[in-house]
Amino acid sequence: MTLDAASWDALTLSLWVSVWATVLAVPLALWIAWLLARRDFWGKSALNALVHLPLVLPPVVTGYLLLLSFGRTGPIGRLLEQTFGLVLSFRWTGAVLAALVMGFPLMVRAMRLAIEAVDPRLEDAAATLGAPRWAVFARVTLPLIAPGVLAGAVMGFAKAMGEFGATITFVANIPGQTQTLPSAIYTFLQIPGGEAQAIALVLWACVVALGAVVMSEWLARRVARRIAGS
Amino acid sequence: MTLSVHLRHRHGDFTLDVAFDSGPGITALFGRSGAGKTSVINAVSGLLHPDEGRVAVDGDTLLDTARGIDLPPHRRRLGYVFQDARLFPHLDVARNLDFGARYAPPGAKGPARGDVIDLLGLSGLMARAPATLSGGEKQRVAIGRALLSRPAMLLMDEPLASLDAPRKQDILPYLERLRDGPLGLPILYVSHALDEVARLADHLVVIQEGRMRMQGLLYDVLSDPAAVPLLGVREAGAVIAATVVAHADDGLSTLSISAGHLELPGVQAAPGTRLRLRILAQDVILSRDRPAGLSSRNILPVAIAAIHSGDGPGAAIALRAGSDRLLARVTSRAVTDLGLRVGMECFAIFKATTVAPGSIGR
């Protein structure tokens, strides 16, 4: 179970990248999920398709598209570097973007289902009591969908921890910089005598995944109890 | 307080075309299921956007499609009590009430939290979750929550329809207190139950298949023989004002009305209390001469004000009884045989037991 320095770096980087990807993705996913569940607008099916694209495309294709658009010579990548000095390709920040994009459809799906399960008549009732739209969302919708948001966040986190194809295509596999846990396992399997470290990392990956599931179950039960009011 | 509603809306094959103006107190919107009552109240609240229309409360325009005005529900200041209560399931009763109070406009007049809790008998429920409340309790909390939002008017959509009869009788006194209390809050009350309407309303608007068919003061509409087919021949009946005089040991109470005295059972109110009695048209018997040797003890001298013959075998007859009006439903044959005509004086008879406690209101 002991990890060498490179494996340890890969594990902590993966956790760091996954936490960032989850934290950044949740508000955006919530907004998109709300738009898809509650609003009618022109281009809604196009938005829905776009959100789901990473789920159906081969991850390597998604990674390559990210490289084309967010790479240093890509249109968005150049703009980000010029205005914010932010470089994504071949950096850990790019690994965050790749993990975020790949986990995004899973988050949106879970949150959209949760929002659609909330009776819109409760939101109407809140509005007639004088609550502006943001307050209706914050005080009625959000507490009621909290378990779904949590489930979406955990799925996004798990996807980020395991993301391989898009990450390795977009930010490569640089030890200590962009070598995430799956990339490290892949690397160890390529070198003779690397199996021991690969297995150690696999066990750690299981621990993290199980921990995330157990924690989310516990949080979901607490939220459900609060909603039931018992 | 004035409420002015003019609406036109198409939804599939259904066309809503309703216009009415009403004053203070409770305005009842009466009609069968599917008549369009809920569409009207939703358009007033801002939850439905009609094709064309104008809604104004006390001169404040909430909706005017011609001028492009359509205030969102949260800016209309109308407390809406839904048929299904719609309490927030993640908040206990106290927090549901707080939700109403939180967005009350600062400085708006309205009852204090403690007064609302007393009025609706909520003090024992504060820590309970909505899921653990009975239907009647939920509805009382919903009314309290709406009151605490300090609305300019209350909207109530069949607030009693989901309750069984005893629960209804529990809630009605609260609604009467709301109407008569110091709040004097105007209420738009949607119902398909004529007994509720007769007990509560000051003003009545009758809707049928999306169209406004009659409107006016409750006493006027309910005593209008032309309203009988609209309200249903078995349900039609006038409402008269009465004052409790005394209760006897045998359970009968004496009430004074403008045309004399009535003896009724099941009157709970103290002497001196003013009540309204709903007397169904089908329970009233007419006699040209004062009957003798009759078991019925309620015999009133009346004058025939109007005779309205319908398509069927029945006729609705409007009667003047003192300053009150009664409605009687008899067969057209009886009208012919007795030679009944407008202006004729005769006697109206009804059994004490036909005035059910549910037909007696404040």
UniProtKB/TrEMBL annotation, chain A:
A GO term for molecular function: molybdate ion transmembrane transporter activity
Domain ABC transmembrane type-1, residue spans: 11-214
Pfam families: BPD_transp_1
Transmembrane segments: 15-37, 49-70, 90-115, 136-158, 198-220
Membrane topology of this protein: Multi-pass membrane protein
Alphabetical keyword list: Cell inner membrane, Cell membrane, Membrane, Molybdenum, Transmembrane, Transmembrane helix, Transport
Keyword Nucleus carried by entry: no
Primary role: Part of the binding-protein-dependent transport system for molybdenum; probably responsible for the translocation of the substrate across the membrane.
Protein name: Molybdenum transport system permease
Organism field: Sulfitobacter sabulilitoris
Gene of this entry: modB
Automatic annotation (TrEMBL), chain B:
Pfam families, A to Z: ABC_tran (PF00005), TOBE (PF03459)
Molecular-function GO terms, alphabetical: ABC-type transporter activity; ATP binding; ATP hydrolysis activity; molybdate ion transmembrane transporter activity
Entry GO terms, CC: membrane
Domain of life: Bacteria
Family matches, as InterPro entries: AAA+_ATPase, ABC_transporter-like_ATP-bd, ABC_transporter-like_CS, Mo/tungstate-bd_C_term_dom, ModC_ABC_ATP-bd, Molybdenum_import_ModC, Mop_domain, P-loop_NTPase
SMART domains assigned to the protein according to its UniProt record, in alphabetical order: AAA
Family matches, as SUPFAM superfamilies: MOP-like, P-loop containing nucleoside triphosphate hydrolases
UniProt xrefs under NCBIfam families: modC_ABC
Protein name, as recorded: Molybdenum ABC transporter ATP-binding protein
